[in-house]
């Protein structure tokens, strides 16, 4: 410390430099210059440095708040998307199950309708066969009856006289007329 004090005192006692001069002793002048510069920087720069640091702190805090808000918003959107996905999956499962049920129901209905149609076709076929059989039987009966009647008429013609022949023919015509009415 004595060197620092001596350097201030020695400024006034330089005979070669006159009233103003330069101290060329680097070791003596550097600490003084540094202390003066640091003092001025601390005195004047303290406010600026504090302002810079406060501004930086505010920007960092603002960025953190914005990031937190964005994070919360993203989490809310994610939760909404998850809820919507779950709802859509449930609806898809419901549609799938309803679709399978509807397909099974339609399949059963189609099988039942086809079975019913086949039964009706079978009934129509049986009715048609029965009708054709009855018609064939009736035709055979008529043929047999016609042949029997012709044979009987021939026999009667040869055995009967005209009056008996005429009554027999009239009776047979009446029987035939009655049979035709029954078959129609």
Task: Characterize the structure shown.
Belongs to the ATPase B chain family. With 184 residues, the chain is an all-alpha fold. It has one domain. Helix content is 90%, strand content 0%. The protein has three helices and no strands. The longest helix is centred in the middle third of the chain and has 134 residues, at 26-159. It is rod-shaped. Residues 7-15 have low confidence and may be disordered.
Give the topology.
Layout (H helix, E strand, L loop, with lengths): L1 H10 L14 H134 L2 H22 L1
Helix pairs in contact: 2-3
Main traits of this protein?
single chain, 184 residues, mainly alpha, 3 helices
Task: Return Rg in Å.
Answer: 67 Å
Fraction of residues in helix: over 70%
- Give unreliable regions as ranges: 7-15
- Report mean pLDDT, rounded to a whole number: 82
Q: What is the H/E string? A: HHH
Task: Give the CA-based shape.
Answer: rod-shaped
Largest beta-sheet details: none
Distance between the termini: 156 Å
Number of helices: 3
Overall structural domain count: 1
What percentage of the residues does DSSP assign to strands (E)? under 5%
Number of strands: 0
Structural class: mainly alpha
InterPro entries: ATP_synth_b/b'su_bac/chlpt
Keywords: ATP synthesis, CF(0), Chloroplast, Coiled coil, Hydrogen ion transport, Ion transport, Membrane, Plastid, Thylakoid, Transmembrane, Transmembrane helix, Transport
GO molecular function: proton-transporting ATP synthase activity, rotational mechanism
Family: Belongs to the ATPase B chain family.
